[in-house]
């Protein structure tokens, strides 16, 4: 990769991503069924994921992100004056390893792309559907330097020696990250992306006009059903401010109607019987409580989703497939109290507006994004997933002070 | 004793003594009458059923249409047909994400004891053997709220040889006492029944391996395994477990019988070893297997288990569980509660929250 200029790398990556953004691009068509089989998600959900992923990897977005984090793209190619009398260059750290150990779709590709922009060799733990390998093949078609620099392997974590890598980016559960970290060399950089939840917060200002509210809830419903609520960017709990304009019951009702419609666009994936059994138990319990005057539930005849209004506050979010708890609150303080009580850390908080107390709520709960509901499942390339920079972790700085 | 209890007891007695079963019509009749009674006396259950359009005035036409109460509802409120301050028995159910357990109250001991002894006699003691009971379950004197402890206390007292042993207290396992009693049984040539959860059996085998201990229990000895690995991190394949038990204790695999019960039920299922270990039930207990919409799934398809237990007169006749099973010829295959209910993606889940707490 050293012989390529950063701009060439960025352009090649963006060109490859553009090809992959086309739903008819043959390699994408070839891996689609494999991804559906691996994740269990329906075809429209997987197509959405691929569109969101590759649609975000544009040349301008890559350049902007790198420039914002490193100052300039040129710093990846040569010593560049910094303005403080020193010159600096951002060198590759060496070989970066990217591990996405759970059933996500292409989450390894973004860090891999930035590691490549920093001219590292990259090894990605691929899944059996070969998505990353297929994307790397396209990169190699763009420039043969990628054939050597970007490798995707299918492996079982236990059998790999992780001590040889200079940086390891890993996605997974607490146990997975603990295990990987233990195998990481003390000289290597460990970049862990742990499991998180996301939440929605509907401010009372959005409740004044039902048309506006419907728009908010349509977007919320799409975010809710995508990835069957299994992603860290899926809303797992929603808070609705009490308002004379529209009571929380009405909001939950509209959300349920929107969820039914979203379920047509994004049908549920294949579920294990155990998932259905847990969901049925939760739905029955919500019905039992509702019959005793505690909260309400919203679902469809098939039971394909479950929205529970005001379940007991001493219960954590449901964390079940297409299941969402909605709480009526007076202010962000109520939401904060609930989430902190249950130790829930957020990745994203969706809201109709960036009201100061909403941003403060997100900040207090460790969120890295405050986003509109429609952007929840479409993180921008320049965002800071997990609260981390995109490329900084993959470079090693040298400064010349002479 | 109510007339209804008397009738249920007669059903139990007829099967216990004469093997007389219930046909579809008889089961329907009994289940619906128990249900009707509960609609009139168990108010939280009645409200739940009313929300599903069921009331004494609008009764279901079949036992399959009785709304099953979710087992988790026992942790929410008291589900009983009587004033529980007069309960003869109260068993505690396991905890939840909210950290609370529930209670299953029974108005009389008669139904519970009759049901458990009839089932045990039929499925564990078909040869009418008088065994010595070595129990790796809670001692009912220490834990009167354990349904499993109560069950084995009852069995040991009425079917045992008066030398019953108890080897669990809290998390302590009294292995030396167990070994001493095993040797005493060997000396007496007295066949034994070891009653234990699968998890306790794993610990027993670990301890035996550690001591390099292997015995051949007297002929006629047997093992009743129950409870699976609910809530335990370490899970051992059942075939492996039974093979190891057979190897260490000298009990033929055919003499190892799995029992399946729940605190929320009065009656139990047992392995039909000869029929490939499908679970069979006494005639007053029937399973349903349902899908996400709560409707019955075809035979052979895996879904959530619903138990309709007519002996559950004191609480709710139909219970929805999270356990998985499939109806097959001759009984039900029990798959237990799989770990797969956890979310698969990069989301936080309840398990991780608990671990972080």
Please, could you describe this protein's structure?
The complex is a heterodimer of chains A (402) and B (357). Chain A is globular, with a radius of gyration of 22 Å. Chain A has 402 residues and is of the alpha/beta class. The model of chain A has no long low-confidence stretch (mean pLDDT 93). Chain A folds into 2 domains: 6-195 and 382-400, Aldehyde Dehydrogenase, Chain A, domain 1 (3-Layer(aba) Sandwich); 197-371, Aldehyde Dehydrogenase, Chain A, domain 2 (3-Layer(aba) Sandwich). In chain A, helix 1 packs across helix 6 (131-142) and helix 2 runs antiparallel to helix 6. Chain A has helices spanning 6-21, 26-39, 43-56, 59-70, 109-117, 131-142, 145-149, 174-183, 210-225, 248-265, 273-291, 332-341, 356-364; strands spanning 80-81, 87-92, 95-100, 121-126, 150-154, 167-172, 189-194, 197-202, 235-241, 296-299, 306-309, 323-329, 346-350, 369-371, 395-400. Chain B has 2 domains: 3-107 and 279-334, Rossmann fold (3-Layer(aba) Sandwich); 111-260, Rossmann fold (3-Layer(aba) Sandwich), CATH 3.40.50. By secondary structure, chain B is α/β, with parallel strands linked by helices. Helix content of chain B is 33%, strand content 22%. An 8-stranded mixed beta sheet of chain B has the order 6-5-4-7-8-9-10-11, with helices on both faces. Chain B contains 9 helices and 15 strands. The mean pLDDT of chain B is 92. Chain B is globular. Chain B starts with a helix and ends with a helix. Chain B has helices at residues 3-18, 24-41, 43-51, 109-123, 147-159, 175-188, 198-210, 238-249, 350-356; strands spanning 69-70, 89-92, 103-106, 132-138, 165-169, 172-173, 192-197, 222-226, 256-260, 269-272, 278-280, 285-290, 303-309, 318-328, 331-336. In chain B, strand 9 and strand 10 form a beta hairpin.
């Amino acid at each position: 990769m050293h012989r390529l200029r950063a701009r060439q790398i960025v352009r090649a990556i963006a060109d490859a991503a553009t090809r992959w953004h086309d739903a008819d691009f043959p390699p994408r068509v070839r891996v689609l069924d494999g991804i559906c089989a691996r994740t269990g998600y329906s075809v429209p959900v997987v197509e959405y994921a691929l569109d969101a992923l590759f649609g975000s990897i544009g040349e301008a977005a890559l350049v902007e992100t790198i420039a914002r984090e490193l100052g300039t793209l040129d710093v990846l190619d040569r010593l560049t004056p910094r303005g403080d009398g020193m010159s600096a260059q951002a060198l590759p750290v060496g070989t970066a390893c990217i591990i996405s150990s759970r059933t996500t779709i292409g989450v390894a590709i973004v860090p891999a792309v930035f590691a490549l922009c920093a001219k590292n060799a990259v090894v990605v733990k691929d899944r059996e559907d070969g998505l990353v390998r297929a994307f790397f093949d396209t990169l190699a078609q763009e420039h043969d330097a990628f054939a050597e620099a970007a490798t995707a392997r299918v492996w079982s974590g236990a059998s790999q020696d992780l001590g040889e890598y200079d940086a390891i980016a890993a996605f997974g559960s607490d146990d997975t990250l603990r295990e990987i970290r233990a195998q990481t060399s003390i000289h290597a950089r460990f970049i862990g992306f742990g499991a998180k939840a996301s939440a929605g917060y509907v401010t009372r200002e959005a409740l004044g006009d039902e048309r506006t509210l419907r728009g908010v809830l349509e977007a919320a419903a799409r975010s809710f059903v995508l990835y069957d609520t299994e992603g860290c960017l899926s809303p797992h709990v929603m808070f609705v401010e009490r308002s004379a304009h529209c009571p929380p019951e009405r909001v939950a009702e509209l959300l349920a109607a929107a969820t039914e419609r979203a379920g047509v666009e994004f049908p549920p994936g294949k579920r294990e019987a155990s998932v259905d059994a847990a969901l049925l138990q939760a739905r029955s319990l919500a019905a039992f409580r509702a019959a005793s005057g505690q909260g309400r539930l919203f679902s469809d005849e098939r039971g394909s989703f479950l929205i529970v209004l005001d379940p007991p506050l001493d219960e954590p979010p449901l964390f079940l497939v297409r299941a969402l708890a909605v709480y009526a609150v007076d202010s962000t303080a109520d939401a904060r109290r609930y989430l902190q009580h249950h130790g829930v850390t957020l990745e994203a908080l969706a809201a109709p507006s960036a009201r100061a107390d909403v941003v403060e709520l997100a900040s207090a709960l460790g969120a890295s994004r405050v986003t509109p509901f429609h952007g929840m499942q479409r993180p921008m390339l320049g965002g800071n997933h997990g609260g981390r920079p995109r490329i900084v972790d993959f470079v090693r700085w040298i400064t010349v002070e002479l | 004793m109510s007339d209804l209890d008397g009738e249920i007891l007669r059903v139990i007695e007829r099967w216990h003594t004469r093997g007389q079963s219930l046909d579809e019509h008889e089961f329907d009749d009994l289940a619906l009458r128990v249900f009707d009674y509960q609609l009139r006396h168990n108010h939280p259950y009645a409200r739940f059923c009313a929300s599903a359009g069921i009331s004494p005035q609008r009764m279901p036409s079949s036992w399959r249409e009785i709304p099953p109460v979710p087992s988790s509802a026992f942790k929410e409120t008291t589900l009983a047909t009587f004033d529980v301050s007069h309960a003869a028995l109260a068993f505690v159910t396991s905890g939840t994400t909210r950290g609370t357990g529930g209670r299953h109250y029974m108005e009389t001991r008669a139904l519970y004891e009759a049901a458990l002894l009839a089932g045990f006699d039929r499925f564990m003691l078909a040869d009418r053997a008088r065994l010595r009971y070595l129990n790796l379950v809670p001692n009912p004197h220490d834990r009167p709220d354990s349904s499993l402890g109560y069950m084995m206390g009852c069995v040991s007292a009425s079917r045992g040889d008066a030398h019953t042993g108890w080897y669990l207290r809290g998390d302590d396992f009294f292995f030396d006492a167990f070994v001493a009693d095993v040797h005493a049984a060997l000396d007496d040539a007295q066949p034994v029944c070891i009653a234990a959860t699968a998890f306790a059996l794993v610990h027993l085998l670990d301890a035996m391996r550690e001591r390099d201990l292997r015995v051949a229990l007297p002929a006629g000895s047997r093992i009743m395994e129950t409870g699976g690995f609910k809530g335990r991190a370490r899970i051992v394949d059942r075939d492996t477990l039974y093979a190891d038990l057979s190897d260490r204790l000298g009990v033929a695999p055919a003499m190892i019988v799995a029992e399946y019960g729940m605190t929320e039920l009065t009656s139990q299922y047992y392995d039909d070893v000869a029929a490939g270990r499908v679970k069979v039930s006494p005639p007053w207990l029937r399973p349903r297997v349902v899908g996400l919409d709560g409707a019955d799934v075809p035979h052979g398809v895996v879904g959530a288990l619903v138990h309709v237990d007519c002996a559950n007169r004191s609480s709710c006749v139909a219970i929805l569980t999270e356990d998985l099973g499939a109806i097959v010829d001759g009984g039900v295959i029990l798959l237990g509660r799989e770990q797969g209910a956890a979310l698969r993606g990069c989301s936080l889940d309840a398990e991780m929250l608990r671990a972080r707490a």
